[in-house]
């Protein structure tokens, strides 16, 4: 370790963290594609990918190579700059969202006492990317998908923020490390059991925020072919795909840290507990996708504005009263 | 009133969502029922309706039960069967069956006056499977019960000619080999037991 480039230097740590995060996201993208297809298969009593490599293990790598090898086409009536800015804008902010995630007590990318705010702010950029993608395509399905994405994202960010705020009330901090530390190692000390309604609202909104089934309205194949990414080929589509999985990992990580005690566990606290909880939530999200049919768009908005938002407000008020009386 | 109703609704929705997760969750842990074809094969071929084939006599596996009456060819709505009966006269005209075959014409029923010791088995029995609609009329009308659906599920071909099947030759080759040569020649072929698969 030289004097000029020490691990204590914030810039060095940031670059190392970003490299690590990109590797983590890419690796997880491949693994999750495989897991998703295997879970889909098993839920339907099929074997899933089977022929490329042992048990189809090489399948996602081959798919990625195929995507990389494809020609990048720009629709002639689209807006070239916006069209190509969108996939980058979808992917890059998600990578930043990993920075404040508490993987382990000592595994910090940056010192940040507002980590939760950073995640919520940058995950909001995603909707701009979808909007630009739909608009830049110059395609009716793209525009409809983009409009849906915006309406859905606005609707579900409200109860999501309210449920997060309830946890922030209970822990008294917006730093994910502090929130994690304020919970104990045992399940009954976790906020998921102390405030189950907030946890439930968070999971529902997280699925909706990541545009996953049953809330995958922006890319509803049956109505909009592929919605905002109809016109994207090759890695343009690949980046959206990767961003979707990265978003899933981020919301699962946030849920694990906020509600499930993060890296703390009954025995041997550490990064494995965080990863185990993260993958458990990811598996739940995948399981949901292969269980429920897609909701109608009015049902989607009604659920958010008429049910989740009032309930989240009540939960927040109840939490505030409980914290005031208890503390 | 309406508030309590909406709570009841929400409770019902939540319950149905959990039931849905239970259904997929249960199927997730059950073994898969896909038969991965080249390595595994289904064993319920007895119910498969493939192209028709000739049934041999019980005591002579090389001779069909068929009496060359032509009822099957008459009944066939698609005209895909060609039955050539043995010649009526003792001295056969060499080109008669071939001419009939060329014209796609069916030789009329053999007359009752034919010698009883003489075999009535057809000399030619062709099926043009590219025309067949598997309606089963030929099997139904056959007075000698000499036709049945084969379970030749692995039939493939690269030209129309591959589906003009000489049923007599097929029956004889089956009798010689005791079983039809199945198409996939993969050595690791193992039929899947019926018990492993549950009814849908």
From TrEMBL, chain A:
Q: Which GO terms describe its biological process?
A: aerobic respiration
The membrane spanning regions, by residue number, are: 12-35, 81-103, 115-137, 158-178, 190-208, 245-264, 270-288, 308-326
Q: What is its main location?
A: membrane
Quote the catalytic activity from the record: a quinone + NADH + 5 H(+)(in) = a quinol + NAD(+) + 4 H(+)(out)
What EC number(s) would the UniProt record show?
7.1.1.-
Q: Where in the cell is it found?
A: Cell membrane; Membrane
Give membrane topology per the record. Answer: Multi-pass membrane protein
Q: Which cellular component appears as one GO term in the record?
A: plasma membrane
Task: List UniProt keywords, sorted A-Z.
Answer: Cell membrane, Membrane, NAD, Oxidoreductase, Quinone, Translocase, Transmembrane, Transmembrane helix, Ubiquinone
On whether Manganese is a keyword of this UniProt record, the answer is no
Q: Does the keyword GTP-binding apply?
A: no
Q: Which superkingdom heads the taxonomic lineage of this protein's source?
A: Bacteria
Q: Name one GO molecular function term.
A: oxidoreductase activity, acting on NAD(P)H, quinone or similar compound as acceptor
Assembly mode: NDH-1 is composed of 14 different subunits. Subunits NuoA, H, J, K, L, M, N constitute the membrane sector of the complex.
Q: What does this protein do?
A: NDH-1 shuttles electrons from NADH, via FMN and iron-sulfur (Fe-S) centers, to quinones in the respiratory chain. The immediate electron acceptor for the enzyme in this species is believed to be ubiquinone. Couples the redox reaction to proton translocation (for every two electrons transferred, four hydrogen ions are translocated across the cytoplasmic membrane), and thus conserves the redox energy in a proton gradient. This subunit may bind ubiquinone.
Q: Which family does it belong to?
A: Belongs to the complex I subunit 1 family.
Please report the name of this protein according to its UniProt entry.
NADH-quinone oxidoreductase subunit H
- Species the sequence originates in: Desulfolutivibrio sulfodismutans
TrEMBL record, chain B:
The protein here is known as 4Fe-4S dicluster domain-containing protein
4Fe-4S ferredoxin-type domain segment(s): 57-86, 123-152
Q: Would I find DNA repair among this entry's keywords?
A: no
Signal peptide extent: none
Report whether Iron-sulfur shows up as a keyword of the record: yes
Q: Which Pfam family, any one, appears in the UniProt record?
A: Fer4_7
Which key words are in the record?
Answer: 4Fe-4S, Iron, Iron-sulfur, Metal-binding, Repeat
What Gene3D superfamilies does UniProt report for this protein, alphabetically? Answer: 3.30.70.3270
Region (Disordered) location: 174-200
């Amino acid at each position: 370790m030289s004097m000029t480039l020490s691990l204590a230097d914030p810039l060095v740590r940031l670059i190392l963290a970003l490299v690590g995060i990109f590797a983590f996201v890419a690796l997880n993208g491949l693994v999750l594609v495989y897991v998703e297809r295997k879970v889909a298969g098993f839920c339907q009593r099929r074997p899933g990918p089977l022929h490329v490599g042992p048990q189809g293990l090489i399948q996602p790598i081959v798919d990625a190579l195929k995507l990389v090898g494809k020609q990048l086409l720009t629709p002639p009536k689209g807006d070239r700059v916006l069209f190509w800015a969108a996939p980058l804008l979808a992917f890059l902010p998600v990578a930043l969202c990993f920075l404040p995630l508490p993987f382990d007590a000592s595994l910090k990318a940056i010192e940040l006492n507002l980590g939760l705010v950073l995640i919520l702010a940058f995950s909001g950029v995603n909707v701009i990317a979808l909007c630009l993608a739909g608009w830049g395509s110059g395609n009716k399905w793209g525009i409809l998908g983009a409009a849906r994405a915006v309406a859905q994202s606005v609707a579900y960010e409200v109860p999501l923020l309210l449920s997060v705020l309830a946890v922030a009330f209970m822990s008294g901090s917006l730093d994910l490390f502090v929130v994690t530390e304020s919970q104990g190692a045992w399940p009954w000390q976790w906020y998921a059991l102390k405030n189950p309604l907030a946890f439930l609202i968070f999971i529902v909104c997280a699925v909706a925020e990541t545009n996953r089934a049953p809330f995958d309205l922006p890319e509803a194949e049956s109505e909009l072919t592929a919605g905002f990414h109809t016109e994207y080929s090759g890695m343009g589509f690949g980046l959206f795909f990767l961003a979707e999985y990265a978003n899933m990992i981020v919301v699962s990580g946030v849920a694990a840290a906020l509600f499930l005690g993060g890296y703390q566990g009954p025995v041997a606290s550490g990064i494995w507990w965080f990863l185990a909880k993260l993958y458990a939530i990811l598996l739940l999200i995948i399981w949901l996708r292969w269980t429920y049919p897609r909701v109608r768009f009015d049902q989607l908005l009604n659920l958010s504005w008429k049910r989740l938002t009032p309930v989240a407000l009540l939960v927040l008020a109840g939490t505030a009263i409980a914290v005031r009386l208890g503390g | 009133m309406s508030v309590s109703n909406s709570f009841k609704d929400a409770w019902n929705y939540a319950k149905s969502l959990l039931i849905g997760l239970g259904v997929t969750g249960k199927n997730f842990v059950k073994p898969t029922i896909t038969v991965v074809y080249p390595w595994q094969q289904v064993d319920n071929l007895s119910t498969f309706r493939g192209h028709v084939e000739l049934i041999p006599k019980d005591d002579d596996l090389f001779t069909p039960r068929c009496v060359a009456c032509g009822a099957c060819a008459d009944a066939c709505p698609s005209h895909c069967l060609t039955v050539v009966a043995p010649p009526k006269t003792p001295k056969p005209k060499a080109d008669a069956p071939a001419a009939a075959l060329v014209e796609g014409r069916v030789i009329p029923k053999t007359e009752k006056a034919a010698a009883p010791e003489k075999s009535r088995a057809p000399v030619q029995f062709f099926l043009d499977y590219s025309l067949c609609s598997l309606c089963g009329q030929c099997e139904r009308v056959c007075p000698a019960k000499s036709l049945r659906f084969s379970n030749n599920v692995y039939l493939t071909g690269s030209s129309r000619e591959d589906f003009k099947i000489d049923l007599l030759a097929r029956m004889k080759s089956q009798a010689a080999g005791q079983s039809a040569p199945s198409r996939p020649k993969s050595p690791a072929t193992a039929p899947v037991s019926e018990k492993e698969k549950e009814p849908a």
